Amino acid sequence: MIQNSLSSLLLELESHCNSTAIVTFLDSDGEVFVVDLIRKNNQVNYGYQKGIKEKFMLRLMRGVQTQASIILRSFTDEIDQYTNLPIKELRGYILRKNSDRIEFNKISPKMMFACHNTDAQTGEPRPLEQSVRYC
Fold first, then answer.
1. DSSP secondary structure of 82-108
2. Contacts of 6 (CB under 8 A, 6+ apart)
3. Contact between residue 47 and residue 53 where contact means Cβ atoms under 8 Å apart
4. How far is the C-alpha of 104 from the C-alpha of 112, rounded, in Å?
């Protein structure tokens, strides 16, 4: 059953990878796992070596004990007129284990903006990252 719930999560992530993206997974123990996504034609490849997708899925299955999170940073072909940098789309997801399923909820763009631009320890605003669209 976890395999089925992972499939819907992976499809969600892949649907927002037009060319390249970076997935940052923070597990229930605070361990981080980062994987690059690369779209080639209609297929999304995980990392640059064979077996990375399976390793990522294993980390998800083992790492979501209570709650966990994913940040997806997707790169677009659009150029920011002020910085001349590619515009990045930023999405966040909260993951929960429910019985034998991993469920995920997307964080709203407003919440994503607030989380990304606030210092977690002090609550103070952080400098805004340029060329980012919160989705």
1. TT-SEEEEEEEEEEEEETTEEEEEEPP
2. 57, 60, 61, 102
3. yes
4. 15
Ordered per-residue pLDDT tens for the chain, 135 residues? 455 679 999 999 999 999 999 999 999 999 999 999 999 989 999 999 999 999 999 999 999 999 999 999 999 999 999 999 999 999 999 999 988 889 999 999 999 999 899 988 999 989 888 999 999
Amino acid at 9: L
Structure tokens at 34: 């980062």
Half-sphere exposure of 113 (CA within 13 A, CB side): 10
pTM: 0.91
Domain coordinates in residue numbering, the chain = 2-134
* 50 conformational bin, left if phi > 0, alpha if psi -120 to 50, beta if neither: beta
Interhelix angle 52-63/2-15, rounded to 10 degrees, is 120
